[in-house]
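Following up on my earlier thread - several people asked me to post the actual chain instead of describing it. Fair enough. Here it is, all 255 residues.
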Amino acid sequence: MKHKPFSNDISALARDVLGYLNFSSGATDPRFLDNLNRLFAALDATAIEEQIWQALGNTLRAELQAARGTSDAFRQVDQAEAVLALVFDAVLPAYRRFHRDLLFHLTDEELFRPFFIGRVCEAVLRQGTPWNDTERIVKAAVRQLNDYIGYRPVATLHNERKIQPYDHEWVGTLPLWIRGAGVAAGPYAELVETALAILDSTDRSLLFEASFDLDQLDELAVDPRAYDFDHPVSKRPNYLFGQWDMHKLDESGAS
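Reply from S.P.:
Thanks for posting it. Predicted structure:
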């Protein structure tokens, strides 16, 4: 697809993102996530016919070709080129197929938000070379993305049997806010910013009674699974209105 010349802002953001993709091993970098989020928002503000996540992939590919060989940072771009192909052509479609039943109610536009795409990039990079081993990387990346189970109401008998969730019960959450990277671009950005501002201004004694400390929050995310509000499990207030991810708590209590 032929693209119009990018604005300086979009080009600069794209090159910052590409620098991470070309040299990183997948460690979380708030600056990368922030730049990716800003690039997503900039593309969303332009008049384009394709979906934003597709425009993001095409923009990064085009900018990578333009940057190739122009500096030491882009003298060799094999890793960034391979990662872009894996993320946009392999892992995102594979993730959609893997959760075709669980996430049937979400469109690609709703699911493939900027911070989620950032998590996909991290997951791909963490699999390491060789980058042409597509099957290995895709399978491992999807497994890594599916790191959330939440409340699981399963009847448990009083015996030694261990009832473990099966693979398709696990899902990747959609980050709305990440410390150091800010609020995810999109239709709910203002709502999330306002909610965080309210929490930040809430009386500390009230937050203490609720066992909540905003300074201990590293990420705010939404469970993308559909809810049946008539089902008994969905009548648990703590489940509907938020909970800590027990698999992400560390010794400091941050999550």
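Strands lie at 174-178, 182-183, 219-222. That should answer part of your original question.
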